[in-house]
Amino acid sequence: MIRLVLLLSMLSVGTITLAQDTGDAPTATEAEQPMTYERLGKIIFALDADAQPRGPGFELTVSGVPIIVVTDANADRMRAMVPIRRAKDLTEQDMQRMMQANFDTALDARYAIANGTLWAAFIHPLSPLEKDQFISGLAQTVNIAKTYGTLYSGGAAQYGGGDSGNLQRALIDELLKKGEEI
Q1: Could you list the residue range(s) of the whole structural domain that residue 88 is in?
Q2: pTM of the model
Q3: How many domains are contained in the chain?
Q4: Is residue 5 assigned to a domain?
Q5: Is residue 22 included in any domain, yes or no?
Q6: pLDDT, tens digit, for every residue of 12-63?
Q7: 93 within some domain
Q8: How far apart are CA 74 and CA 64, in angstroms?
Q9: Confidence class of residue 167 from pLDDT cuts 50, 70 and 90?
Q10: Is residue 1 part of a domain?
Q11: 151-156 contacts: CB < 8 A, separation 24 or more?
């Protein structure tokens, strides 16, 4: 019972922290248009002028990290992915730490395994995806790829002091600024 109360307390604190980080939500009259492949492309090219369309997706680079974005309009899904390493060499401790991070510090990005590769991934329904959600999700995906083996953090919210949180948050702020013109 004590563990359940502690878990619920942690979840409510995390919810409050994340709600404070979201900023002002648009009103009903300011709602964004549904996300489409074309709109996603405009955002991606604002973030990386050298991005390349690839089939139903794009390849781009953010902060020196290559990202693959794949869309499926029929399934109304979008996935942004960064390959990290071969999965077959992961230890039990690696898996434990990644699952812990998926619960608290990876935020909207996640560690995932597919086709023998460990990935950093951000997965979201396509049409309701908002510009700032996408940009933040990309930055979090890059951050968890970069911090694999160390902080395992999406960078948007961290508990405790130190310099790491501000350094990781800087990437999200930089990408959000680039996206303001869209």
Answers
A1: 32-179
A2: 0.74
A3: 1
A4: no
A5: no
A6: 334 333 334 444 555 544 678 999 999 999 999 999 999 999 999 999 999 9
A7: yes
A8: 31
A9: low
A10: no
A11: 151/105, 152/97, 152/98, 152/100, 152/101, 152/105, 152/106, 152/111, 153/101, 153/105, 153/106, 154/105, 154/106, 154/107, 154/108, 154/109, 155/107, 156/21, 156/107, 156/108
